[in-house]
Amino acid sequence: MAVIERIQVEVESHPIVLFMKGTPEWPMCGWSARAVQALRAAGAQNLHTVNVLEDPEVRANLPRYSNWPTFPQLFLHGELIGGCEITLELLESGELQRMVAEAQSQQQSQQ
């Protein structure tokens, strides 16, 4: 399977996907760590992450797929939300909590 197809499967298979450097337990950059903290603060329970450091093909091609140059990258319902700064702004405004709750409730209704 081509790398762009693999990225698309990840994005479409999970309501909340964070492409990050490292893992939620061991983030390898401050931006990724802050994005995970923001998502957890917003109530994300089923956070699916992809460590781009473990997959050079994904790391190289995700910016082309999403048209977003940096990591982390947050996707909700298959749609790019943005990077760490946008995630933090959404948390501060209360919007991220609503978006995460919506994504999780849709996932539960599909199970």
From TrEMBL:
Which positions are annotated as binding [2Fe-2S] cluster? 29
So which domain of life are we looking at?
A: Bacteria
A GO molecular-function term, please? 2 iron, 2 sulfur cluster binding
Residues annotated as domain Glutaredoxin: 16-81
Spell out the InterPro entries in the cross-references: Glutaredoxin, GRX_PICOT-like, Monothiol_GRX, Monothiol_GRX-rel, Thioredoxin-like_sf
One Pfam match, by short name?
Glutaredoxin
UniProt keywords (A-Z) are: 2Fe-2S, Iron, Iron-sulfur, Metal-binding, Redox-active center
Q: Which SUPFAM superfamilies match?
A: Thioredoxin-like
Q: Which PANTHER family is this protein grouped with?
A: GLUTAREDOXIN FAMILY MEMBER, MONOTHIOL GLUTAREDOXIN-S14, CHLOROPLASTIC
**Official protein name in the record:** Glutaredoxin
> Which organism was this protein described from?
Pseudoxanthomonas taiwanensis
Gene name on record? Answer: grxD
